[in-house]
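EI: anyone free to look at a 171-residue chain?
SC: sure, send it
EI:
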Amino acid sequence: MHCSVFLGASLDGFIARKDGSLDWLKPFDNSGEDYGFNEFFASIDTVLLGRKTYDVVLGFDRWFYAGKRCMVVTHRPAKSVHGEEFMSGTPSELLKRLEADGSKRIYVDGGALVSQFLGAGLVDSLTISVAPILLGEGVPVSPNLGKDVTLKLTEHRAFPSGMMQLKYSTK
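SC: here you go
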């Protein structure tokens, strides 16, 4: 099983505004570049996302996770809108259940969930697209990580929009 993270961050390390808004990414979305997301998305079979991220993406014009098994990690009751399923547990427990159900390549999405998986040593690869913007405050890339996680740079790429993409391995 392989767990990957693919996210956008401001230059000062935030993945969203305090209210969860991603409006600051719109100028970069309009560049016509997908920053490798489509290739990445084609490589995974399961999306595992945190509840706050799920609540934010439900408000988008389209469902970004179409065609993939989508599991939302939450303790709060929820109703499926796009066929997503809901589960709770520790990162290790979640992965054991997903593996038993046949998942092989998992995309972990959402600040708190990503941080939990990084802290548990369960993320294999991390792709961060750094936007040339300073937000000053917001949701950090790895809130409450609680320990050092050493990363190995495996690839880097600059885009005409000013976005810089960094790909890391944790192994």
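EI: The longest strand covers residues 2-10.
SC: 👍
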